[in-house]
Amino acid sequence: MTNRRTLLKTMLGAGALAATGISMPSLALADELETLKEKGVIRIAMSGAYPPFNFINEQNEVVGFDPAIGEEIAKRMGLKVEIITTAWDGIIGGLLANKYDAIVGSMSITPEREKVVDFVGPYYRMSRGIFVTKDSKIKTLDDLKSATLGVTLGETHEQWARDQGYNVRTYKGLPELMLELENGRVDAIVNDDIPVLLAISKNDAPIKELDVDLGGVADQAGIAIRKGNPELKKAMQDALDAMQADGTYLEIANKWVGGDIR
């Protein structure tokens, strides 16, 4: 099988459980699908700070791969979309508090998260990457032991870095992470590789990926919904499967990411 990272870099040549401590929610009294159909709208949440997957453009619109996926799924369910941006470290808590109906924000599927929410998908796969400035003296994972790593608060990469015993500094999203790295306030950043590599290519940023083995595919991104909603989960999964089968998914991926990331 062709190395995924090689494919990604060729393509470029042409985003810890945030809700740790949240108790298991009680099962919904009734499936929410019918309620959503009555309202005609599904509210989906994301950080809005994870380009090109979700970000706010110059017209103050939330755009990117995630909103496009969410909007297409909703359209196939006969629903309109309301996009809500919120801080990543509290996003699961907001879902459980009924502030929105789903999280379509590049959320990694983990056993910890599956204890409190259900997932539709996965709708794409990602690899963990460590990035440093081009003139950095950091070459190996051992070099990171004396370094400061920037991570997004509440992402699985934060927990991974802490588990390794690294010195961690947390931030709100990828743009801030990259700025802190370029300005020398952190020595390295840990993030999903795709958005960072795309940002490097687009902005000619003086950043490179550390050539180390982190074990291949780190995570799969899923759409989180509240537990106890099998009909809603099936309707969303059926819509996702259909758009992947008929080529719509690939069109969206080509537009926002530059290639297939399933």
UniProtKB/TrEMBL annotation:
MF annotations from Gene Ontology: ligand-gated monoatomic ion channel activity
Coiled-coil segments on the chain, per record: none
UniProtKB keywords: Signal
Domain Ionotropic glutamate receptor C-terminal: 41-259
Entry's Gene Ontology cellular component terms: membrane
Signal peptide: 1-30
Keyword Iron-sulfur applies: no
Organism domain of life: Bacteria
Protein name: Amino acid ABC transporter substrate-binding protein
